Structure formats: structure tokens, C-alpha cells
Amino acid sequence: MSAIALLDCNNFYASCERVFDASVKNKPVVILSNNDGCVISRSEEAKQIGVTMGAPLFKVEALLDENEAEIFSSNYPLYGDMSGRVMNLLQNFTPEVEIYSIDEAFMNLEPRKKSLDHLAESIREKMYKWTGIPVSIGIAETKVLAKVANKRAKKVEFREKGFLNLYRSEKIEAILKDTLIDDLWGIGYRSALKLKANNILTAWAFREMDSRFARRLLTVTGARIALELRGIKCLPFDLSSAKKHSVTCSRSFGQTVSEYSEIKEAILYFLTRASEKMRSQNLAAQSINVFIATDRFRPVPSFYSNTATYSANYATDSNREIQDWAIQTLERIYKPYYEYRKAGIILNGLVPAENLTKRMFDDAHFEKQHKLMKAIDEVNKKFGKDTVRFANVNPHGSWKMKQTRKSQSYTTNWNELLRVS
DNA sequence: TCTGGGGTCCTAGGACCC
DNA sequence: TCTGGGGTCCTAGGACCC
Q1: d(Cα A59, Cα A46) in Å, to the nearest integer?
Q2: Cβ of A401 < 7 Å from strand C?
Q3: H helices within A240-343, ranges in order?
Q4: Which of A122, A193, A344, A367 is the most buried (most CB within 10 A)?
Q5: For chain A, what is the mean pLDDT?
Q6: HSE-CB for A159 with a 13 A CA cutoff
């Protein structure tokens, strides 16, 4: 039985901003979602003054001003780059690292030369020294228990140490009894309601629950979590950094949009971004899902939301072809007169772009398009986004979000390096 | 035309995560 | 005035096959 660690970066986005801007140390810092809509990351100081996760900016703006907080739009190139540094560093401690999210990774700590506590300490220390990012670590026999340990490690009692080792620990029972069912990884709002209706209020009660009943109530997903709480591994360790199954691009608009031509513009723009990302992983899509929606908070004159899928007989990575799919699909769901607030596309059925099934008729033609797309991607990578683009794509449509508080791309753009004066 | 059991594949929708 | 975006997995149900 091996020990699993879950490492995550504390207040990741806020911490990233701090690495490069000393003037925001020891101040409340918050990072906003796209459109500068709501708070998605908070420094410790911001949490303390009572800014909640997901709070809409307009509701906490006064509070932030009073406390002289720093407010940033999200800067994903920066966070992505910092994430890469963190994950690379982890490989020095064990080859078995599963990157679970931009700021979290599971690690298999076996075999090891040091004690688990010692190992956790040295990982934390090196991470801070080399990347400037503070991290928390939870250690246990399964992923779910490691998650519990990690969460607890952030609480006041363990914050100083920054890690909690529950591997074969007699503390497990007490901690599970003190963990509310709502706070358990994998149990969301819906499942928590069902469990509470059955008087299952804590992680411990869930662990002790009859597993057939757990399965009936929450399907296999829930049953697995209950077993993991007992120390039985059900969630596999995924080292493969597996290829994606889908790529999404969607946005809320900066203002409402009604005209078909503008919605189409937005959709084609999202398509450009998503297919770029797809090709960067050498994948091709076999279907597309298009969705549009009016403002869910202000259903005026009435709420409308719809989605449709186009499935092709072959996969492609050519924008020309996917554009055709997208437009046909959009036409099926677009209705005039509505004030749309959000739209997006999902590319599905991703397969490796090499060795695609040969097409009966226009294979040579497709080969050409494939090469053309690759060439366009190269140019845009070198000279900047949308240097070369399809004429029907407008990267500056009226639907475009506003991002007014973005920090610099310190690590990914030569023109925005940190200046030392 | 109806009748049965057993199987696969696909899709839409739900639930959850960060 | 102002409320994010990008993913995964599971299941039920329809269509189809023998």
C-alpha cells in the first residue's frame, strides 16, 4: 500500500500575482473571472476581510476599496506558465505525478528514502524557494483521504506546518467525524442533499454507510468515494497526461447581442481559439456543439437557451470545414429578437490528426487544408494571435469582454517582462 | 403485423470538479 | 449598470442489430 500525496498551491492565482509584484504583498488581493464578473481567487488577507469565493465584483467592490485591496483581471498565460514550473519541480521528488488541475497534483511517494513528514517538508521548502508559490500537502492511503488531509492542512491548527500526514494514522476517524458531508471531494450540492435526507451528515457516517445503499443513492461514483474513505483504492492514478476528449471556448458578452451576424462572428471567433488549441495537441474533431443563451439573471423579455450538435462522418482539423459545421448548427438554434449574453462551442470526438481515416473523394484536398492550418498556426505563434485569420472572423466584435485590470504577461511575453528599476 | 431476449453504439443530460 | 470558463465521468433511453 503506497502513500499518496495531494499537493496544491495556496490561493494560486493571487500567489502568482504576488511573485511578480512585491507591492501587493501583505495586502488583500483578488483575481476576477473573465469579464471581470466575480472573484475567483483570494489572498489570505482578502478572505479575512470577508470576500467570498465567487462573489460578484459589484457586491464586494466597496469592501475591497475600504481595505485598499488590489484587484486583477485573470491572466491565464501567467498562471499556466507558473503551473508548468510547479509541476516540473514535482518530478524531482517522484516520477509518478498526476497533474489534476492547474494548481493541484497527486503524487505517489513510494519508494522513498525519507519519512513522509520529512518529504512533505522538503517539497514545500523547495517549492517556495524555486517558484515563490506556497503550497499545502495532504498525505494518505487513497486520493479521497489525501484530499481530506490536504483540506485540513490549510486549517489554522496545521497552517504553520502546511501539511498533514494521515497515512495509516489513528487520527483519521476524528477528522472524518469533523468533516461535513458537503465538504467532501466528489460530493456536490445534489448528492449532499440526498445524503442529508438519509441522516448522513459527516464523512465518517458516509464511510460507515452500507455500500449497496450508497451505490443506489449516488451511483458508482458515490460508492467509490465511500470505499476510498475506508482506505480502499478505487480511483486510479493517471500518469498518462492523457489527451483531451473535448475543447471548449465560450464567453459571456460584454454587452447583450441580438443580431445573427454578430452571434455568428462570436461563434467563429470561439471556433478559431478552440481549434488552435486542438491543433496544438495534434488532434482533430469529429463533431461540434454550439450553444447560445440569454442572460440567466435578467430574463428580459424572456429566457432562451439552446444547444445543438453537428456530427460529421469524418474528423477534421480544418477551420474551413468546422466553420461550415458551426454555421449550420447555429442556424438551427438561433432565434431573432432575443438579447443573447453568452455563447460558445465545444469540439468533441477528438482523435489524433495524423492517420485520419482516408476520405473517399476529397482526401488530397483535405491534406492541403491540414497543412495550411498548421502553417497559419506557426505564423500566429511567431507574430501574435490572429496575424493571419479567416476574413469572416472578427476578433474585436462588440460582444467582446472587457478586461481592464490585467497584470502583465511577465513570463510569456518579451514585451512584458518584469522591469527592475 | 405481431412476438422476445440480448447486445452495441450513440447522445443528451446530470453531476461534479477546479 | 455589474454574477466565469473549461473540463470529466456516468446513466438512461433511443436506434439498431441478430
Answers
A1: 14
A2: yes
A3: 260-280, 319-333
A4: A344
A5: 92
A6: 6
Per the structure, the residue whose CA is closest to nucleotide C8 at C1' is A245
- What single-letter amino acid sits at A111? P
- Strand B at less than 7 A from CB of A103: yes
What percent of chain A is modeled with pLDDT above 90?
76
Strand partners, A7: A105, A137
Asked if strand B contacts A311 at the CB level, meaning under 7 A, the answer is yes
pLDDT, one tens digit per residue, over A18-54 is 999 989 989 999 999 987 889 999 999 999 999 999 9
Residues A394, A23: Cα–Cα separation, whole Å? 37
CA A292 to C1' B14, in angstroms, rounded, equals 19
A181 touches strand B (CB under 7 A): no
- The CATH architecture annotation of domain A1-169 reads 2-Layer Sandwich (3.30)
pTM score of the predicted model: 0.92
Whether omega for the bond prior to residue A111 falls within 30 degrees of 0, making it cis, is yes
Provide the grid cell at A127: 517549492
